[in-house]
Each structure stands twice: as C-alpha cells, then as structure tokens.
C-alpha cells in the first residue's frame, strides 16, 4: 500500500511525589520543567528535569518527563533510557510503557514496541491511544488482522477518532477488503471533508472494484486538496487508462513522474499511453526506464555508510568551537602549545598544529581539550577512527564534555554505527550541547 500511519508524541505531565520540605529544590526544578514543556521549550525542560534528577535520583516522574522532553526533541534513543529508569522505579505507570513504545516505534523497533503497548493496555484497558499505537506497529510488521482489531477497539473507545478510521481503511485495503475500506474512508471524509487522503484511499479502493469513473471523481477531489500527491496522480492516470482516456492519463502519469521520479509504475503507465497514442519511440524509452528502475542499482563499497556523508560530517563538525581559553601557564607550558596549535590550524597548517597538540599531550596527559582538538583535526584529515580514539580520551578525562560526545556521535554515525552515534548525540544534548538536537532530528529518526 502507498500510505503510512503517523504516531504522535504528547506531553503528559505526571505529578511529582516528594517531600515539600526535604526536596523543595528538586520540586522547583521539576515544576520548572513542566512549565517549560507546556511552553514548548523542550531543551530547557530537559535541563530542568536533569537538575531535579540530580537532586532526587529516585523520582520516577522526573525521568518520565525528561524522556518526554527528549522525545519531543526527536531524541528517541535517549528518551527510551529515561523511560527504562522510570519503569524500574514505577512498573505500574501505563504512560511510561505507552511512551516507551512510541519511541521504540519511532526507531522501527516495532516488536518491542508492541510488548510495551500491550503492557500499557493491561494497566489501562480503556486507553484508546495504546490500541491505536499497537495497531500502527502491527501494521508495520504486516500483522494486519491484529491491527484491524486494535483500530476497531480504538473506534469503540473514541467513535470520532478520524485517524483510527483512516488507519482501519488502509488495513482493510491490505487485507483486500476493498468494499469495507470504502466505508471507513467515507467516514473520514464526513469527519473532515477536506482531508485529501480520505478521497485518495477511497479512489484506490474503487479502482480495485473496477469502479473507474468513481475512482476518477474521488481522485479529482484528492488532487484538489493536495495537488502534489504523486500517488493520487498515478492512480487517477491508471483509472483514466482503464476508461481509455489516454491523453488525460498521459498527463497524470507525467505529473506523477515529475513529483516522484523513481516511480517505475508511472513510467510504465506513461509508456502504455504513448504506445496507444502512436508514440512508439517515447513508449520504448518509458518502458526502458520502468525495467531499469525495477531492477535497481548496486552501489560500490563506501566508507561513509551512514546518512551523514563526508561533506555533511565536515559541515556538522566544523561549527564546533575549540575550548581555547586563557589559563594560568603551567611549568611545562602545555597550554601555550595547545593555543599555538589552535592558531596554526585556523591558518590552515594542520600538520604543525598536530605536532603542537602531540607535544601538549606529552607534557600533560590529562589535557582533555588537547585530545578533543586533535580529534577534530584528525577527522578533518579523514582519520575518523583516530578522531574517535581522541574523543574517547577526552570523554574519559571529562565525562561531561558535551562537544566531545557530539563530535564522536556524528563520526560514528557517518561510519554507519547509527545507534551508537545517536546515543552519543543524545548524551551531548543531555549535557547541554543543544546543537545535537538538530542533528538528532535530521539523522536519528
């Protein structure tokens, strides 16, 4: 099927239970975190909840709400770690299971997510969202009959849940129950007459029932509300072809290709139209594209195997500033070597900079900033493994070195270790290096 289901993150504030006297400071941080969450300042909320956790590390709601803040920053790996802790402290919190399941779903760990949703349902059998989320994860695993039951239960609990009707309609399509799916899409259109997906879904089902004229009417409506939906153009082109309107179908297939150049079915459809319109040369070109795209291409071996390619890595890393601040000059003068290295690197003399950094580290083996800066330069030179080793050293010497976690994270991600890279980025954000969340949002989901 052509469409996908969306899950949503909510801000569910769970009350803080602690002594108003002995833990007043932690309570203040917690309430500040709740206020910032409600205002949409999730980075600020995260820092507030972190302080509450520092003051009172045994309070489950602080971990839970910090997890929500991370999830809203799209840091789902970091959120899961917080939900784990919240559940350890309070195993009967259905919201923690529901939220952990959602973050697992966002990481495509749908089997584990289903277990969490099931536990949330056991603890709260009337939670419509838990059924909906479980149905969505079951859909991703092609467990369509189970998903159908979950969406139906959601509708029983919330009779006007438009997303559940739409999801159930899509699920019925996957079970080839075309007639019944039309009923659900019709309900979606009744609840929201301007929702393009309702008409698109119903139009697709009508095609399978050979109601091509009805399909064209529905797809006209879908395109009226969402003119750049490539699939709607493709299906309308298909329906028009069945009605032998080859000129109209050609226009739709052509538009579908412009919107989605890798749609080999649209090339096939346009080729059929060209053949019917006596453009055999153009038809052959389109059929060639359909065949080649269907077979795909095999890429050669690459070293930067993650979504963060070498040019992206360079851009993300080069915005990091070295911690080059004036310090009291020690007897061995390692600080002077370090600062000279920073200046030499800025002048483009990375070779001389490396010599100075090596000397600074020899003179002061606990110089975290020198290791970190050497790691930056090694990464610039393409030595990503050496850069990771230097970041490891910097973090070992200073476990709160947010920039080092950030750089190590983007390098790991660029080398294909997405999970470890995103966990490092999560830690960087947790430590207050907020640029990590922009990278998480773009590359960790």
UniProtKB/TrEMBL annotation:
GO BP annotations, alphabetical order: receptor-mediated virion attachment to host cell
Classification via Pfam families: TPR_1, TPR_11, TPR_16, TPR_17
Classification via InterPro entries: TPR-like_helical_dom_sf, TPR_rpt, Ycf3
Top-level lineage group: Bacteria
Keywords: Repeat, Signal, TPR repeat
GO cellular component annotations of the record: cell outer membrane
Annotated TPR repeat ranges: 26-59, 60-93, 94-127, 128-161, 162-195, 196-229, 230-263, 264-297, 334-367, 368-401
Signal peptide: 1-22
Keyword DNA damage: no
UniProt name for this protein: Tetratricopeptide repeat protein
Organism of origin: Rudanella paleaurantiibacter
Classification of source organism: Bacteria, Pseudomonadati, Bacteroidota, Cytophagia, Cytophagales
């Amino acid at each position: 099927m052509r469409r996908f289901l969306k899950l949503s993150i909510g801000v569910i504030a769970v009350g803080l239970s602690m002594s108003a006297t002995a833990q007043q400071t932690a309570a203040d941080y917690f309430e500040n975190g709740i206020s910032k969450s409600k205002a949409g300042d999730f980075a600020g909320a995260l820092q507030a909840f972190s302080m509450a956790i520092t003051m009172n590390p045994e309070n489950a709601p602080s971990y839970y709400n910090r997890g929500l803040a991370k999830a809203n920053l799209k840091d789902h790996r970091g959120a899961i770690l917080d939900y784990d802790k919240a559940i350890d402290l309070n195993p009967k919190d259905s919201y923690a299971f529901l939220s952990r399941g959602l973050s697992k779903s966002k990481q495509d760990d749908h089997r584990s997510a289903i277990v969490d949703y099931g536990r949330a349902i056991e603890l709260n059998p009337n939670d419509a969202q838990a059924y909906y989320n479980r149905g969505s994860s079951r859909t991703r695993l092609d467990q369509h009959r189970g998903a159908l039951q979950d969406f139906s239960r959601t509708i029983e609990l919330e009779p006007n849940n438009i997303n559940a009707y739409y999801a159930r309609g899509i699920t019925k399509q996957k079970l080839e129950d075309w007639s019944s799916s039309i009923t659900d899409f019709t309900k979606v259109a009744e609840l929201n007459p301007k929702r393009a997906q309702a008409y698109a879904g119903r139009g697709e089902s009508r095609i399978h029932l050979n109601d091509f004229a009805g399909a064209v009417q529905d797809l006209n409506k879908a395109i009226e509300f969402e003119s750049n939906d490539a699939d709607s153009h493709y299906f309308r082109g298909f329906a028009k072809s069945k009605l032998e309107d080859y000129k109209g179908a050609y226009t739709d297939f052509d538009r579908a290709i412009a919107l989605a150049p890798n749609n080999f079915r649209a090339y096939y459809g346009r080729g059929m139209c060209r053949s019917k319109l006596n453009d055999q040369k153009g038809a052959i070109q389109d059929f060639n594209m359909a065949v080649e795209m269907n077979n795909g291409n095999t890429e050669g071996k690459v070293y930067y195997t993650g979504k963060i390619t070498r040019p992206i890595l360079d851009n993300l890393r080069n915005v990091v500033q070295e911690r080059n601040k004036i310090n009291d000059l020690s007897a061995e003068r390692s600080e002077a070597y370090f600062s000279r290295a920073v200046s030499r690197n800025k002048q483009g003399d990375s070779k001389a900079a490396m010599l100075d950094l090596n000397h600074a580290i020899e003179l002061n083996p606990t110089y975290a900033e020198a290791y970190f800066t050497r790691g930056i330069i090694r990464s610039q030179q393409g030595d990503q493994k050496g850069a990771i080793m230097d970041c490891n050293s910097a973090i070992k010497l200073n476990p709160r070195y947010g920039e080092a976690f950030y750089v190590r994270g983007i390098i790991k991600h660029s080398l294909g270790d997405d999970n470890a890279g995103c966990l490092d980025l999560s830690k960087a954000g947790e430590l207050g290096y907020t640029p990590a969340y922009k990278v998480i949002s773009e590359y960790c989901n």
